[in-house]
Amino acid sequence: MRAVRFPSFSIPVPPSLPDNYLLVDTPLATKSDPNPTPSSEPITNTTIYTCIAAPPPSAIQTILRTLLSTSDITSCLSTINTLKASQGLALADILTALGEQLNNLNVPVQTKVSWLEGLAEIEWRLSGGGGEAVQTGGLVGVVRNGVELMEKTGKGGSLLKGIS
Known about the structure:
Elements: E1 2-5, E2 10-13, E3 23-24, E4 42-43, H1 45-51, H2 57-69, H3 73-87, H4 91-104, H5 109-127, H6 132-153
Antiparallel strand pairs: 1-2, 3-4
Helix pairs in contact: 2-3, 2-4, 3-6, 4-5, 5-6
């Protein structure tokens, strides 16, 4: 059985439902209306990600692909800022999801440590009141430094393998 996965939980989805259809909205009963009529609007994956303000996997994959393959810092920043603005994403949520994705990549340990240490530092600064614009730049720098470290040691290979 497939499941819709979120950072802290997952929801099982019966195989008979299409990928973009999850549930039908059923309002809670109240004293004045003990049998509310279910809404005909389907709850999709997009609806859930929007409701819980989590970055959708497609946005994280776009950010990851850009950071790993684009050496131009301005281009990386532009892509991230565009996604943040158009989808209402918060940098803290992007850091969490990106950390999970980077941790799953098959890269040398020193690169993985560099990435996770850098992301933790950015998250700490952000929680302490650091500006999102500056910390977004820090995110790009941390990931690009890890990529360049692998390129220098000749262990980079194709980082985009396995990224859908």
